[in-house]
């Protein structure tokens, strides 16, 4: 149930029985020569919306640009400064709280967002507690990384026993290929070769980007298994 | 060509011949009892991406939440404070400028964004000119409201000679029904009636929301004509 | 009735019957080789105070420096960043609202202020609506460009059928010569010639600055007609 | 030499031989039942411009609203938050520094501005020194309270041996009556009586407002002597 | 080697061979009825200075107040908003970077600081990378929680097999008693009893505060073992 | 009575009879080749705590880094921008006000803090008065420079009739040697000679730094007299 595809009268009804909302948050940043720049936002959006359907919760528009300062060396990466991202999270929550929402569940697709979004929650709480807004209903914000559930971790280890890495992981790239099949390697021209010269800081890139998305063994059956795992409990 | 669906190496190549990028910007706010909350973001995104395909330009992720303070009285509306939206625009532009982009073309779906986004451009320019960053390449930002082109205006007047209004216009609602046919009235349960009691400030709502989306005469052929008009020059 | 020339007890009395106030806002920026740097502030102040006398309204001190980033290439131009100007407008309005003022009428002398001041109004409204300050009296801010009234437009076209331009217009320069006759060309040394070499960006300057103020045909009778027009309704 | 009444080409010439500028800064706040709300801005402006004439220095537009939080209890008082006033001072200085001004001489009419403007200078210096802008010309800001010169102090003691006070002093009220004779007591209706009931915090007001402006002995010859003293050295 | 107890000439010498500095950061917040309000700052300071002695590194003044919004319900707790703490970290790092420091090692005593300080590091990096300050030496910031080393964890489990908790842990309380023996229970009056009525949110408090500091079995030999463990590698 | 060495239940009791708190604030900056970098913070802390003991008042953690922009040319100096320091003061005061503290007494060790801390107080008051927080208890902040008491001034003149200076004064250096005897000249290696070449801006340094700390006549009996003077009334 995407908020964007509903009317305000629908939301008004919804609030009579539920006060939670899902907010996907990702990043727009390089994911190696084969991963999509939108990987973190696309996966958070897919999974956030999938969860919303399963539990009957509204899903806010995706925050597609996050904290990606450490990727600015690669063309196409966009970052919000932490202070900007905190203001975005704050305004989103405060706007919705005004209507009666009290639980804000951020489905996160990017490790680099964790610190800033957590700090944003504290900023919201601090603003309210410093003002002694005792007449305001209590609100609660939570951040959940989709890759942290036990089921996803199990499947990652099964499918990609080596080379999962911590950025541009095989798991997340698989999900984007599942969701956007036109972008998968079989649908595209031959893999570009990574040349050290192409990287602003090649050493850093090598350690941060999973090599697996390049490999032929990354078959198309795996993406759909990964997707199904994200929709399972635990 | 969505930036999110490309790799950083693709962007690196792109920048060798082009330095412009399209950035759709909308709003998440009530559009009356029949219009979608996401109308302004969905239309800006559709049109921004459509233009991108036609001219071979990269399209950044949509900024889905804009300046909608005046709609906060209606459930589901989200606003960024102008100062927050200015920071978002600033960081987006500065990140991309770092890679070599120099022309930023914001396709706008919401009248309420115009002042703030224009002020954001001035903030960016002021920051750079106050620092005498003479060694920085010159950048240029532009905002274009999709409904302001002559072709769209002509078609609006032809299709909806009365009742177009200035918010939740028949034109923009038509576009969302074209793009998201599941949300059109024929696909949904009977129209809810607008009751003054449902509006926080009913008088304001009546003058700001086009009555036409409720009418039976709003046929399904019109949305597709509206869409095609947005893709025409002038 | 200038606020600066009254006592606080006078204002206290005034608020028993009226809650509106006029706030002139201009800019401090180049107006070509013959127009005054203070043109936009001086005209807004003259007209704001003139209107105040006619309608018996208090007039706040003029905000003389506005958003003039695009003129920083010319010596003597001063700009506030949009974020700074927004804070100035916000604090001015909030201070006066505390005393019971509820209507804030900004008489504007500079096109470059429109976006920022409009965004400032939204920032004020957003701050209040996000906090649900339901116990606060409602306030309303409006911006009016003096040159937009029908009477002024008619006279501009009559007096300066060609060469009015959009910056350093013949109309506004005429007003400053009416208000500050010592600065008019007849009172000064011969006109300096515009030499392209004097302009940081000469092409830009040529298109933005009305050529008329240089011409001999710009007689002294016209300034007073222009002034009288600003004091007429419509 | 008011900057507002000059052209940019004049300023361009000026900068070939001088790089200093005078910036009057005052406040808009109650000055008791007889002193003008604009006293601090009007006196700073009169004296700043007078000094400018004597030494041949340009004078920027007056910053008429300052830090007057402690007067918000009285109708008509306006304050900028210190953070806002610091941004105004910063942008003014940085704009002018861009053209080649290097000495900024603030003529101050309000004790309540001293801390904030001094902090603003440090903010400007800190911004520059933290960035190691070694390629920027050095700038220097100074604040001078007009009432602190030895000559003014001597005259104050001679003319108003008792009752000068520290706010709404006899000296500053005298200057406004000299500059704006229509506002002097002889030109106005009988003095209003200060009633404790009229004051939000009457005790505070009694200790902060000089009683002398009410007295008959405050003759009209004294204002002109006070004015002449401000134009003398030392 | 405390920075505060050295001269600037000493630091000048130090920078010829070393460019790292230790910055203790803690919090000022309730630690239950027996733990000290300064626990997190005192432990970070003790350990930061101890490490500094061992490795011959300078130690900056302790940042004693951190992000403790979630403890504001308890008297004596002080918090900085995350945005404020980020500015403090930023200014500290930028000041020291100006002298030639390039490695900033924050020894942290408070879990609630982690997100905000990490976001502050990103803010610093983002500011620098957005400006393309390619002529600036590269800097690196790191945060290390003292309780996360393997040796400390082992000892915690040995000494306090139950009841260590995650806030006001037995380990950290032990350290403060070691460092400030006058504050230990044997030096004080009988333990106050925790009564639910004393807690603003008693349920929350019970789950967050380790019960062990109250117990008699918390002998004085343990604090010194804990201290020695913090000074060991691994 | 240091807040850091107390429990929250102690503070809860304290607030039943007292609502004041002492907050030492200093600076971390060069104090010449012999004075300690921490001089201003160490002296404020010593004196703040000493006063706290005498009057039975709680003493908050020392704010050790202040506004020292003008010392950034010397290694080891750290500054907060005025805007950052204002946020720190604001958050500290607002946190404590939430618990019921109403009087905030800053014991200051650094002249460069005066303007910024005073502006911070105004920012706090402005925030509260602009919001018409009429239901909030009134708070009051005061700043007191320890060296401004009559007794200290008398002793300074007696002990150091020449060479006291205004920065790195003999008085404050004496106090640090009293409090931290290991850092006194007798405990250290021979005095380094000040060479003009060592100073970024040697002329400035010479006029700002008291020469006396270098002299042999600066005996160890004087520090203790200075300390006792700070603990006397008047």
Task: Furnish the topology, listing elements before pairings.
6 copies of one chain form a homohexamer.
Chain A: H1 8-14, E1 20-25, H2 39-55, E2 58-59, H3 82-99, E3 103-108, H4 114-130, E4 140-145, H5 150-159, H6 170-179, H7 202-208, H8 221-230
Parallel strand pairs in A: 1-2, 1-3, 3-4
Helix pairs in contact in A: 2-6, 3-4, 5-8, 6-8
Structure description:
The structure is a homohexamer of 234-residue chains. The first copy, chain A, is of the alpha/beta class and 234 residues long. Helices cover 41% and strands 9% of the residues of chain A. Chain A has 8 helices and 4 strands. Chain A has helices at 8-14, 39-55, 82-99, 114-130, 150-159, 170-179, 202-208, 221-230; strands at residues 20-25, 58-59, 103-108, 140-145. The first copy, chain A, has a 4-stranded parallel sheet. In chain A, helix 4 links the parallel strand 3 (103-108) and strand 4 (140-145). Chain A is globular and about 50 Å long. The model of chain A is unreliable at 189-221 (pLDDT under 50). At the C-D interface, helix 1 and helix 3 of C face helix 1 and helix 3 of D.
Short note summarizing the structure:
The structure is a homohexamer of 234-residue chains. Chain A has helices spanning 8-14, 39-55, 82-99, 114-130, 150-159, 170-179, 202-208, 221-230; strands at 20-25, 58-59, 103-108, 140-145.
């Amino acid at each position: 149930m995407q908020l964007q595809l509903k009317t305000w009268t629908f939301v008004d009804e919804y609030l009579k029985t539920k006060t939670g909302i899902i907010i996907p948050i990702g990043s727009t940043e390089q994911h190696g020569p084969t991963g999509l720049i939108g990987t973190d936002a696309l996966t958070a959006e897919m999974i956030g919306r999938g969860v919303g359907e399963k539990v009957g919760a509204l899903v806010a528009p995706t925050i597609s640009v996050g904290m990606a300062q450490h990727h600015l060396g690669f063309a196409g990466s966009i970052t919000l400064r932490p202070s900007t991202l905190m203001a975005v999270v704050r305004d989103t929550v405060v706007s919705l709280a005004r209507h009666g929402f009290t639980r804000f569940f951020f489905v996160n697709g990017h490790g680099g967002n964790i610190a800033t979004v957590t700090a944003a929650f504290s900023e919201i709480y601090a603003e309210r507690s410093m003002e002694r807004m005792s007449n305001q209903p209590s609100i609660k914000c939570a951040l959940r990384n989709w890759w942290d559930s036990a089921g996803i971790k199990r499947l990652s280890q099964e499918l990609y026993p080596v080379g999962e890495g911590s950025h541009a992981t095989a798991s997340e790239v698989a999900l984007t290929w599942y969701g956007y099949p036109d972008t998968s390697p079989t649908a595209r021209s031959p893999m570009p070769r990574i040349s050290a010269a192409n990287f602003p800081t090649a050493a850093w890139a090598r350690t941060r980007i999973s090599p697996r998305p390049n490999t032929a063994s990354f078959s198309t059956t795996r993406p759909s298994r990964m997707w199904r795992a994200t929709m399972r409990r635990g």
